[in-house]
């Protein structure tokens, strides 16, 4: 086995028991060499089944011939090929849109315990580092491309990140491989192409090991980011105690433990926590967090982000998105109260125990509601919600059960959600923050 094959085999060691390996095959040099190497390896080692995926974007006339080229290559290597045609959405960056369309295909094609293998090499890693450095990226961005990460139900792996492009070219010539040269790769109006053709040649003339050094710096940043993630997990854990409104099904943290951290550590913890929910602003645009954190008690501040909002209520911060950002439709007649009632944009309600006499309907707070309580008389609903500390953002979504004009119950609030004799209880299963149902 050659040194090249030995390096690749070692890089793939964690994935040798996968159910399948899928190769992202553009037909270019790197993916062609990767596929050929894998086929050579399976002749001497037991490997998972290998398939190839070619994504046809249709962005240029030359691309029409690429699926056929990939098919000839795969036929010669006895590798099944899947060709997927995609529509690239118009936008500010055609490169980004094409990448997004590509990865949607890869996510769909990669199942549980399966791995997508891509052919990015050391020069690509160096270009990514420099590109992100010029955009002012932080440690996470400067870590460039990870060697492996989750991809849908499976994983993505880049086994050639330590290999320079020159080594791929040498291998391809030695094995008489042919590959596609994308005409768009020479267009220097694309930022990456400008770096590749104009900047890196000058850097290599002065510093021949520039790409290797940059790739090594990316690895150092990846290690540093791993430590920051560990610190963020500790800080989030310290602020993750549940509260009495856990039934809302919303992600939340205690504010005080977060606010007690240094500003940089606050941002690190919040970036880690919010990354699962939304795209985050850059470091210069965190004034919204400062305003939310420092607002006076009872101010109910909101920080609006790309995919939702961060609210402060009840000494906690809460993440809201999807249906939680809109007032639900009301009223809703409950024609069959023996069955669960779906509330448009607001989950569902049901009775536990007996069913009260009708006619019944579910509505939401408008202001001025009054509720009759046993041994307490008629009480203002606003006061009752204040007594229980219900977060302001949830008050307009709490299902209110009416019979004619009489307010019978408020879902999920102890003492307000049942009949005086306890024969029935109104239970609300809210819409989750990801717009699903709990």
From TrEMBL:
Top enzyme category: ligase
Q: Which domain of life is it from?
A: Bacteria
Q: Might you give the EC number(s) for this enzyme?
A: 6.3.4.19
What residues does the Lysidine-tRNA(Ile) synthetase C-terminal domain cover? 360-428
Gene3D superfamilies recorded for this chain?
A: 1.20.59.20, HUPs
> Which GO molecular function annotation, any one, does this entry have?
tRNA(Ile)-lysidine synthase activity
UniProt main location, coarse: cytoplasm
The UniProt keyword set, sorted, is: ATP-binding, Cytoplasm, Ligase, Nucleotide-binding, tRNA processing
SMART domains given in the database record: TilS_C
The answer to whether the entry has keyword Nucleotide-binding is yes
Comment field on protein domains: The N-terminal region contains the highly conserved SGGXDS motif, predicted to be a P-loop motif involved in ATP binding.
Describe the function of this protein. Ligates lysine onto the cytidine present at position 34 of the AUA codon-specific tRNA(Ile) that contains the anticodon CAU, in an ATP-dependent manner. Cytidine is converted to lysidine, thus changing the amino acid specificity of the tRNA from methionine to isoleucine.
**Sequence similarity:** Belongs to the tRNA(Ile)-lysidine synthase family.
Q: Which HAMAP family match?
A: tRNA_Ile_lys_synt (MF_01161)
Name the chain's protein: tRNA(Ile)-lysidine synthase
Q: What is the lineage of its organism?
A: Bacteria, Pseudomonadati, Pseudomonadota, Gammaproteobacteria, Pseudomonadales
Gene of this entry = tilS
């Amino acid at each position: 086995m050659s040194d090249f094959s030995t390096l690749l085999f070692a890089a793939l060691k964690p994935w040798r028991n996968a159910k399948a390996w899928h190769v992202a095959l553009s037909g270019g040099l790197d993916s062609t060499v990767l596929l050929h190497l894998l086929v050579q390896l399976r002749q001497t080692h037991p490997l998972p089944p290998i398939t190839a995926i070619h994504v046809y974007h249709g962005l240029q006339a030359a691309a029409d011939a690429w699926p056929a080229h990939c098919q000839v290559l795969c036929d010669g290597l006895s590798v099944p090929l899947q060709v997927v045609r995609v529509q690239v959405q118009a936008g500010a960056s055609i490169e980004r849109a094409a990448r997004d369309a590509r990865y949607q295909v890869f996510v769909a094609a990669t199942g549980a315990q399966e791995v997508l293998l891509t052919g990015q090499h050391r020069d690509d890693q160096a270009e990514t580092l420099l590109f992100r450095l010029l955009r002012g990226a932080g440690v996470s961005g400067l870590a460039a491309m990870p060697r492996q990460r989750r991809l849908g139900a499976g994983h993505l792996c880049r086994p050639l990140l330590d290999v320079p492009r020159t080594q791929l070219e040498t291998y391809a010539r030695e094995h008489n491989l042919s590959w596609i040269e994308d005409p768009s790769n020479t267009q220097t109006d694309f930022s990456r192409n400008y770096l590749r053709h104009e900047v890196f040649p000058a850097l290599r003339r002065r510093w021949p090991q520039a790409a290797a050094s940059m790739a090594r710096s990316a690895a150092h940043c990846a290690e540093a980011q791993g430590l920051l993630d560990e610190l963020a997990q500790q800080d989030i854990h310290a602020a993750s105690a549940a509260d009495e409104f856990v039934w809302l099904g919303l992600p939340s943290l205690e504010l005080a433990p977060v606010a007690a951290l240094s500003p940089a550590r606050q941002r690190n913890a919040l970036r880690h926590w919010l990354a699962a929910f939304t795209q985050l602003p850059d470091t210069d645009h965190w004034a919204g967090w400062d305003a939310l954190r420092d607002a006076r008690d009872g101010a109910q501040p909101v920080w609006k982000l790309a995919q939702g909002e961060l609210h402060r209520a009840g000494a906690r911060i809460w993440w809201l998105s999807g249906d939680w950002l809109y007032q639900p439709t009301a009223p809703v007649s409950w024609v069959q109260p023996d069955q669960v009632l779906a509330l448009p944009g607001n989950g569902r309600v049901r009775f536990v125990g007996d069913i009260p006499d009708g006619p019944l309907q579910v509505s939401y707070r408008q202001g001025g509601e009054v509720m009759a309580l046993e041994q307490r008389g008629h009480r203002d609903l606003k006061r009752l919600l204040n007594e229980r500390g219900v977060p302001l953002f949830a008050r307009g979504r709490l299902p209110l059960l009416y019979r004619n004009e009489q307010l019978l119950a408020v879902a999920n609030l102890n003492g307000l959600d049942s009949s005086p004799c306890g024969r029935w209880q109104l239970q609300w299963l809210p819409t989750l923050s990801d717009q699903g149902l709990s």
